[in-house]
Hints:
Helices cover 49% and strands 7% of the residues. The protein has 16 helices and five strands. The chain has a five-stranded parallel β-sheet, sandwiched between helices. Strand 3, helix 6 and strand 4 (173-179) form a beta-alpha-beta unit. Mean pLDDT is 89; it is low at 1-5.
Amino acid sequence: MSDLPQPDQLDGAPHPRETQVLYGQGEAEARFLQAYSSGRLHHGWLICGPRGVGKATLAWRLARFLLATPADDGGMFAPPPPQSLDISEDHPVVRRVRAGADPGLLVIRRGHDDKGNLRRDITVDVMRKLHGFFGLSAPDGGRRVVIIDAADEMNPNAANALLKALEEPPENATLLLVAHQPSRLLPTIRSRCRELRLAPLAKHDLDAALAQAGVESDSAALAQLSGGSVGAAVTLAQGGGTEIYAGLVRLFESLPRLDRPAALKLAESVAGRANDARFAMLLSLFDLFMARLARAGIKGPGPEAVTGEAALFARLAPDVQAARAYAELGQHLGARARHARAVNLDPAALVLDMVMQTEAEARKHL
């Protein structure tokens, strides 16, 4: 494996190929095992769902399982159907996969340009590896497995090349397509794959997955703000996301007379290139705050991310009309923030303006 950044790995967390246990996705695993045990294993599988819930981890688990489990020859001494995707850590396939050296596995993902930067999409040149891979004899007459992560990052030419492989797959070949937004894939690709849809993790599964990734937290705030996504939770934990969100709640608790020094301090905390990551996280959490505020005004308060959040939402959004106004404002501010980042507007000025527009809207309903 290259030392260059890998598009399918989150900073600060193990690569999915090194993650042995997948939490919270037992239903998807059971569906695959049922298809496998029935003798009707499809050649194409679309693994989809929100970001960070274990799609890549499942793809690598499926790859290890397929490469390490001998095919049933139908004889009377055939082993019983497997009850789990687990493969022993000391199995040769597991060691080879971790080393990136298993001849039966091909991983397709975004490549790097001449400067070592990740490309924006998967190109047809990368996808052409499929032809050479399928042209080789399967090792030991066994299976061949392809992981494409993420399939919704293919450009049109790469997608057409994949479609040809799905239309005429080699014997004992399985293609595992990871997709964050499956609607971006060609309908003909989706129709040739069986879908495994993964769900957000419940708090106990999220806590276990974070512990496995080396992130120490059992925070209820992290569970609420991440939406059940391990990837989002890791990013929040590493970037102080729960503290930033708590700061937003405390700031807006001062309404209808906004705490101006606190607003200025928040804006100044994202000034300068050194604070680019904090700026991006603040924009994301501001968008989440507005969405949670609007949702609380329509459906009533849900579980709190931080203490005092429910009371604040009940005060700011006392009815559906107010909730809809916040929803519209949130969409407007989100679009404006994306444009501002694209043209490199001053982060501090942008954040301060977002706070002031929220204050102006809140005063209409207080």
